[in-house]
Amino acid sequence: MGIGRRKLTVHIVTIAVTASPFMTIAQSNEDSQCALICTPEFKVEPQITLENLFFRPRVEDLGDGATTSITRQDRESVFELAIVMGIPTEIPRIGFTVETILSPFGETDLNPFTGATGAVFSSTATRDNGIELEFEVNFDWLTADQTGGWIASHFDVVDKFSPAERPTDTSLYTHKLNFELDMAFLIFHWLPENTWLKNVELEGSLDYVATGLPSAGDIVGGQRYLDDASRWSFSLLAVLPLAPLFP
After folding, report:
1. What's the pLDDT tens digit per position in 121-139?
2. Which helix or strand (DSSP H or E) is residue 139 part of?
3. What is the pTM of this model?
4. Which of 76, 126, 133 is nearest to 105 (CA)?
5. What is the gyration radius of the CA atoms in the chain, in angstroms?
């Protein structure tokens, strides 16, 4: 098992160990009462993320060293799938979230674990369905109770554990500070209680990654950044409850 895989495995085990006390506390409170930490909620969130939202940085393709060209990075949309554990608390308007995020259809030119390129397999690219982890503190500044059950919003401070992006990084995965502003629309709120669809949400998420991204002058993948990498992205997602089915 490679170093990167061992680190990722250790991190996932850490999540399970960290979450186990929460589960024990929740199970010891089978009624509606909570002892600080309440019963976790599990959800799946398919989402489309638009990267380089407000600004597309200029990059210089270094090529073979003899000739160079300057372009702007594309404004790309990426499909992602998040498996989410939400942890409510007895602290007013504060909760925690742990997310595992997958990119099922991602591609890369170089496999970071084996060093192989797509050409080895007579393919133009290698699937890049790497895993990202997020650990969030959620601050609910607008609740559904304030809007008749139709709209809710929260601000999140996030520890994002994802593939390294700076040439000075010494790990395959690095921690990044991320801020999110999420606005949820409970579009099926009008349905009767104990209807699964009633709890499905359509959500928009504006993200700002504060650390860990390439800066002007960094050389990544044969390209020199002439501007700082764009820190903004926007995601449109559906929130689908898994357990409990009827929160």
Report:
1. 555 666 666 789 999 999 9
2. strand 131-142
3. 0.79
4. 126
5. 21
Q: Give the containing element (helix H, strand E) for 103.
A: none
**Strand 41-51, strand 219-220: pairing:** unpaired
Of 49, 71, 50, nearest in space to 60 by CA: 71
pLDDT, one tens digit per residue, over 190-242 is 999 889 999 999 999 999 999 999 999 999 988 899 999 999 999 999 999 99
CA nearest neighbour of 186 among 141, 155, 142, 137: 142
Burial class (CB within 10 angstroms; exposed 0-12, middle 13-18, buried 19+) of 243: exposed
55 burial via Cβ count (<10 Å: 0-12, 13-18, 19+): middle
pLDDT-flagged residues of the chain (< 70): 1-33, 64-67, 106-129
- At 214 the three-state DSSP class reads coil
d(CA 100, CA 23): 18
Q: How far apart are the C-alpha atoms of 105 and 127, rounded to whole Å? A: 7
Question: If you count them, how many residues does the chain have?
Answer: 247
CATH number attached to the domain at 3-243:
2.40.160.20
Q: How far apart are CA 142 and CA 125, in angstroms?
A: 44
Domain positions in the chain: 3-243
